[in-house]
Amino acid sequence: MLIFTDQQRAETFGYAGDPVASTPIADRLAAESVVFPRCCASAPVCMTTRASLISGKPVHEHGVWTMANPELRHGTSHVRNIRDAGYHTAVVGKTHFRHGQRHTMDHLDEMHDWGYVDPVEITGPVESMTTDSPYTDHLAKKGLLDVHREYLRNYTRGERLRVLQPWETLPSLLPAEDHLDTFIARTATDWIRGYSGAEPFYLQVCFGGPHNPWDSPAEYRLRYDADSMPLSITEKQKGPVAPLVATMLAGSAAQLDQMSAAQNRVMKSYYYAKVSMIDDGIGMVLDALREGGHLDNTWIVYSADHGEMLGDHGLIAKKVFYEGAVKVPCVVRPPGGVDGWVSNGLTDHLDIAATFMDAAGAESIEGSPGRSLVPLVTAGAGDAGAQQHRPAVLSEFAGQDPYSMVLTDGYKMTVNTRTREPLDLYDMADDPHELHNRVDDPALASVRDGICEEHLPELLANVNWAKLP
């Protein structure tokens, strides 16, 4: 089973050492799992990463650099491979495979093409303003749909006019039980309890949050003392400003330039409150698995599509290669659980897809660079390879040009995908907050050249030039 959140930072958990996060469910899950704190998103944006996760292909191969292409469903799909191995495949929640639809259930044929036998597709929060789904049907039956959509209209209208600041986001006007993420959890719980098929199942539970708006219900906001929230990274950077960063700074400057420390803490508390609400929802899902006797025969992976800058470096949202945007949670619980331990091996979404196919005994995706985590998890913490997985992983996104970020054990470097020109370089051991871009530093010339010569040729060996933006 895949538990997948949207725009969740990797450290927003008690198990990850966060001093304020209230995530008892995720913490208990991690205590029975292998945690991979160095998991990198295939892209720092929703649709692109999700295309990589389902296809098992890196961005430069599948070609979804920004917006999804529905025709991609005719290519590879790890879900289809698992279905063909004899599993009943299902999804409850956000897939984000397309834009512009009237009702998600109008696209069942497309979801079946991807390999889902039983799809219950629900949009993310902002999309629910204009797209219907089982969630908006639920709100309509309870007489709450107009309340929900008017809240979103005010949120998006204020965002465009630069009236609403992130720390001014109002709490949801819906009862907590009718919030999008609670509905997804409850629907997934009902699905698990109602499943009676003879085949084993592969279920994806895909939450819409903690993606903005950070409309956490009031009772969840009360769990946090804003004055206790750690401040975002605000130190000034040294060295060149990478193109993606410059673009994003220009877009967020009007919102964050004048943000005070108190406002920063309030903004973060709203985000964390939404994380806690999702944590409760995950508890509902795990309870259903436990009650059904599934925990002893189910692989569970908890991850997210990408992170959230949350004020770090003067930025919100994603679309950059800083740790806040590209590092995602990765918790892998084998059937029955283990005594929890941590592996610092580099991993990514392609590895998550490979892990599920391996666990299901499904055919792997030919040519995918993804490597299953099953052998590492089953070998245990004492194995000689427990702290190693891949020498380097890749994250990609298109701004004014296509960009590829390479993360190794010690360094992070971004290049222009087309020209391979290095754009930024960080020493992640000495500079974990990425405050000094040393791409032009002669002292790191050998590191820069080494990444270009040792990793880029393999990582970018199969660029789909026809789809390169």
Instruction: Give the amount of beta strand, in percent.
Output: 5-15%
Relevant CATH superfamily: Alkaline Phosphatase, subunit A
Name of the CATH class: Alpha Beta
Structural class by secondary-structure content: alpha/beta
What is the tally of beta strands? 15
Average per-residue pLDDT, rounded, comes to 94
The helix content, as a percent range, equals: 25-40%
Q: How many domains would you count in the coordinates? A: 1
**CATH topology title:** Alkaline Phosphatase, subunit A
Number of helices: 15
CATH architecture: 3-Layer(aba) Sandwich
CA-atom Rg in angstroms: 21 Å
What is the first-to-last residue Cα distance?
34 Å
Taken in chain order, the helices and strands follow as: EHEEHHHEHEHHHEHHHEHEEEEHHEEEEH
Q: Largest sheet, order of strands side by side?
A: 5-4-6-1-7-9-2-10
Largest sheet: 8 strands, mixed
Q: What form results from the Cα inertia axes? A: globular
Low-confidence stretches: none
Short characterization:
The protein is 34% helix and 15% strand. It is α/β, with parallel strands linked by helices and 469 residues long. The chain has one domain: Alkaline Phosphatase, subunit A (3-Layer(aba) Sandwich), CATH 3.40.720.
Question: What do you see in this structure?
Answer:
This protein is an alpha/beta fold and 469 residues long. The protein has one domain (2-389): Alkaline Phosphatase, subunit A. The protein has helices at residues 24-30, 46-55, 59-62, 78-84, 108-114, 134-141, 145-160, 180-194, 218-221, 243-256, 261-291, 323-326, 349-360, 374-379, 445-459; strands spanning 2-6, 34-35, 39-40, 88-93, 118-121, 201-210, 300-304, 327-328, 330-333, 341-342, 347-348, 392-398, 402-408, 411-416, 422-427. The strands form 3 sheets. Strands 5-4-6-1-7-9-2-10 form an 8-stranded mixed sheet, with helices on both faces. Strands 12-13-14-15 form a 4-stranded antiparallel sheet, covered by helices on one side. β4 (88-93), α5 (108-114) and β5 form a beta-alpha-beta unit. The mean pLDDT is 94.
